């Protein structure tokens, strides 16, 4: 962990006595760390740094799973083919400790800064900022735990070091990992403390203010906690991630149903989802319109937490469009994923199905297949894509590191209206980074409810069966609004597999599957990535790339550089 602290110093974090500072020269005066105490905007910048580098839907780590491959030698491709180890911890999140240290430094200086001249307003600002810092510290630790929690070499289920203070450059960095349940408890405690300071939403609604502010001046409260603070971490966001924490803990790779974690997750999720109308609040466009929206639109009912709108993310289209549209075609969906999309009536897409045609395998399929994946004959905004052995640069391996390797290209998350010219000029688009959205929460509740009591176990009036029915109906599955296949699901195990498949489809290419497979204890069983060729007459499957994961793959390695330097940090088993 020491190199994290060293890097912070090198990258202008704190201590002027090691030649670094948080400040840049102002005119001819070289101000030191003391500026933090009298410049509130400068001090708040330490907190705002912790909002940088969030985990979003744009990691495209699917190339490390059975859902996709890359057409270039990415870290995820190397990971999948056997190069993942403690020296090459491709998915490591150990670096999130840098933001943890920023937050701890910020908390340590909160009382020293005059945020507003009015005493009551100053106190309200201080308490809101403290709540944000504690919540973000918990969130960063959750992301680190998701990656690095696991069974240590001692055979014990371990969590991670939990850091609640700022370490000076000469501090003792040899910090041991906590037990897994203790880590979960520490994260949950920080989330709970933050909930005492932050409102559910930044709308200034006096009825929703935390109890500690009941005696505060109404106008001052609304000024500090009003809509101008939107997009900061809120009580609603905290509860969503607390539910994610408990679901992670309950999952087979960790506590495997022991304790109350499934119930705790379900209780929080039911509260959040009933607050938007329960199943009736499921956004009818949430399976695609949470990201693709007209310029100027600011209404995202599917999205619980997101970044500000940006016009600088057309790199997504540049990287993912097929070469015929002047893109690089980097992420290529697999035949494995395509096969996971059911037929239109909800039954699995196999040759046993009366309407499945192996010579026309994309007909009568779940409409999400056409929305999410560019297959032979599918189009982007009326521009058809031909993926055939008969020629054309969109065919398999036609252009090195630009053409598909699997017979498919990505369509989901792309703005189909974008035009990329041959010289690289690209038309405008607006995007958001998504941190958490409601469909994920609905699927989490379905999973927790099913684990607690099977397909029809109701939590807050919602069961796995009626949640999955609503999600599949929204997608367009079912004839005359009936889902014949769902009606055949009667056991907990069958519903478990259906929920997992719906998570795979609804959340594909958003960075979820890699961590879902790991918490389910299945990542070590990841099947090889398959593709589909078209020779002009018929389609045929082929092996694109093996998946070479060992029995240790469900728990990510701690970077070997940290373990070598600090003997108190126990490595995960098998790394």
The SSE string, one letter per element, is HHHEHHHEEHHHHEHEHHEEEEEHHHHEEH
Q: Which structural category fits the helices and strands?
A: mainly alpha
Average residue pLDDT: 91
Q: Class of the domain at 1-33 and 86-253 and 555-575 in CATH?
A: Mainly Alpha
- Overall 3D form: globular
The stretches of 5 or more residues where confidence is low (pLDDT under 50) are 1-31
Domain RagB/SusD: 301-575
Domain SusD-like N-terminal: 71-211
Pfam families: SusD-like_3, SusD_RagB
Keywords: Cell outer membrane, Membrane, Signal
Structure, described:
The chain has 575 residues and is mainly alpha-helical. The protein has helices at 2-10, 35-38, 40-49, 75-83, 97-109, 119-148, 180-195, 218-224, 235-250, 261-274, 315-320, 335-340, 367-372, 438-453, 464-475, 492-506, 513-519, 560-565; strands at 68-70, 150-151, 157-158, 303-306, 331-333, 373-374, 379-380, 383-384, 409-410, 434-437, 529-534, 539-545. It has a domain at 1-33 and 86-253 and 555-575: Serine Threonine Protein Phosphatase 5, Tetratricopeptide repeat (Alpha Horseshoe), CATH 1.25.40. It contains 18 helices and twelve strands. The chain has a two-stranded antiparallel sheet. It has a two-stranded antiparallel ribbon with strand order 2-3. A hairpin with a 2-residue loop joins strand 7 and strand 8 (383-384). Helix 5 packs antiparallel against helix 6, helix 6 (119-148) packs parallel to helix 9 and helix 15 packs parallel to helix 16 (492-506). The longest helix has 30 residues, at 119-148. The chain is globular. The chain starts with a helix and ends in a 10-residue tail after the last helix.
């Amino acid at each position: 962990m020491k190199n994290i602290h060293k890097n912070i110093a090198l990258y202008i974090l704190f201590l002027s006595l090691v030649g670094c500072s948080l400040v840049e020269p102002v005119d001819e005066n070289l101000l030191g760390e003391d500026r933090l105490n009298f410049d509130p905007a400068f001090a708040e910048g330490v907190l705002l740094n912790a909002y940088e580098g969030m985990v979003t839907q744009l990691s495209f780590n699917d190339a490390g799973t059975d859902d996709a491959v890359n057409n270039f030698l990415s870290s995820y491709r190397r990971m999948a083919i056997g190069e993942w180890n403690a020296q090459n911890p491709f998915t490591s999140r150990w670096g999130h400790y840098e933001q943890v240290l920023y937050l701890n430094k910020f908390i340590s200086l909160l009382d020293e800064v005059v945020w507003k001249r009015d005493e009551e307003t100053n106190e309200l600002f201080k308490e809101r900022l403290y709540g944000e810092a504690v919540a973000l510290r918990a969130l960063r630790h959750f992301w680190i735990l998701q990656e690095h929690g696991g069974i240590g070499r001692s055979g014990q289920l371990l969590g991670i070091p939990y850091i609640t203070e700022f370490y000076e450059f000469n501090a003792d960095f040899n910090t041991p990992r906590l037990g897994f349940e203790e880590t979960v408890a520490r994260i949950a405690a920080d989330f709970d403390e933050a909930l005492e300071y932050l409102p559910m939403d930044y709308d200034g609604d006096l009825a929703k203010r935390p109890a500690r502010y009941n005696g505060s001046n109404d106008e001052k409260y609304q000024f500090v906690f009003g809509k101008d603070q939107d997009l900061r971490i809120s009580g609603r966001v905290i509860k969503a991630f607390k539910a994610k924490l408990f679901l992670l803990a309950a999952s087979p790779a960790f506590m495997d149903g022991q304790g109350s974690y499934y119930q705790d997750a379900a209780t929080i999720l039911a509260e959040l989802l009933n607050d938007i109308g329960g199943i009736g609040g499921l956004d009818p466009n949430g399976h695609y319109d949470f990201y693709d929206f007209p310029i100027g639109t600011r209404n995202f009912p599917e999205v619980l937490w997101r970044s500000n709108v940006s016009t600088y993310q057309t790199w997504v289209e540049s990287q993912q469009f097929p070469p015929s549209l002047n893109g690089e075609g980097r992420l290529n969906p697999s035949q494995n994923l395509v096969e996971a999309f059911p037929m239109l009536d909800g039954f699995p897409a196999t040759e046993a199905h009366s309407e499945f045609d192996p010579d026309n395998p994309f007909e009568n399929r779940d409409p999400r297949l056409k929305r999410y994946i560019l297959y032979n004959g599918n189009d982007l905004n009326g521009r058809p894509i031909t993926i055939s052995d008969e020629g054309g640069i969109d065919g398999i391996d036609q252009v090195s590191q630009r053409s598909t390797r699997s017979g498919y290209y990505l369509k989901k998350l792309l703005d189909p209206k974008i035009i990329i010219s041959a010289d690289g000029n690209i038309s405008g688009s607006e995007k958001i980074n998504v941190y958490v959205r409601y469909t994920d929460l609905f699927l989490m509740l379905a999973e927790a409810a099913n684990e607690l009591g099977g397909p029809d176990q109701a939590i807050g009036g919602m069961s796995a069966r009626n949640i999955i029915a609503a999600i599949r109906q929204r997608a367009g599955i079912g004839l005359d609004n009936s889902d014949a296949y769902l009606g055949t699901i009667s056991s907990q195990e069958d519903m478990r597999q259906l929920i997992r498949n719906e998570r795979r489809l609804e959340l594909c290419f958003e960075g979820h599957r890699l961590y879902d497979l790991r918490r389910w204890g299945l990542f070590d069983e990841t099947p090889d990535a398959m593709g589909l060729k078209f020779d002009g007459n018929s389609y045929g499957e082929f092996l694109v790339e093996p998946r070479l994961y060992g029995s240790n793959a469900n728990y990510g390695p701690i970077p070997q550089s940290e373990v070598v330097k600090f003997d108190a940090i126990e490595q995960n088993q098998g790394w």
